[in-house]
Amino acid sequence: MDFAGHPEAAGKARQYVRDKLGPDHPALDDLTLLVSEVVTNALVHSVSRQGGRVTLALADCWESVHVDVVDDGGETVPHVQGDVFSESGRGLLLVETIADRWGVYQDEAGRTVWFEVAYRRTRKGSRAPCPPQRTSDEPPRPQDSAMRAAAERAARTVSDGLRRDQGREPAGRWRLVPDGLKQAAERLGVDPWQD
């Protein structure tokens, strides 16, 4: 994405990152901050501020995001300033701290400050997050009723099997604690011996 070398380019670059990665991207906040810092540096310290251009390239590589910010170059090479108490000059310090790798190079396209931010992605189909737990004062959700119905059917199936196996020590056969079924049925609010 190309931006004119004007102050509003930093805000447009932040919006571009949010639009491209989406609100749920695990590295969104870090990347938005670092892009803002590096684009601002390009606007303040390069020839791009004199009507030139700043180009932002973003590549999500599954578990890391690679970012290039290309400007029109300048008299100095971007570097980390060591004074954390300075009013300015902390942009590349943030890049050095947050990014996993970063660097600067110059070619015919201009000067490029690049960085990579690694992240962990939840892979589709790997492990779904647990649903939120309902508090006791909340009304039951539709899925609660379905789970309860399934649990009641399971308790009835087990109780029917126990009734058939009376006298054959089913608790031992199924490796059940003798009172376990009764306790489970009580927790569910069902009668395991009910027809």
UniProtKB/TrEMBL annotation:
Residues 125-195 are annotated as: Disordered. InterPro entries: Anti-sigma-factor_SerPK, HATPase_C_sf, HATPase_dom. GO terms for molecular function: protein serine/threonine kinase activity. SUPFAM superfamilies: ATPase domain of HSP90 chaperone/DNA topoisomerase II/histidine kinase. Residues 150-172 have a biased composition (Basic and acidic residues). The keyword Kinase applies. Residues 6-115 form the Histidine kinase/HSP90-like ATPase domain. Keywords: Kinase, Serine/threonine-protein kinase, Transferase. This is Histidine kinase/HSP90-like ATPase domain-containing protein.
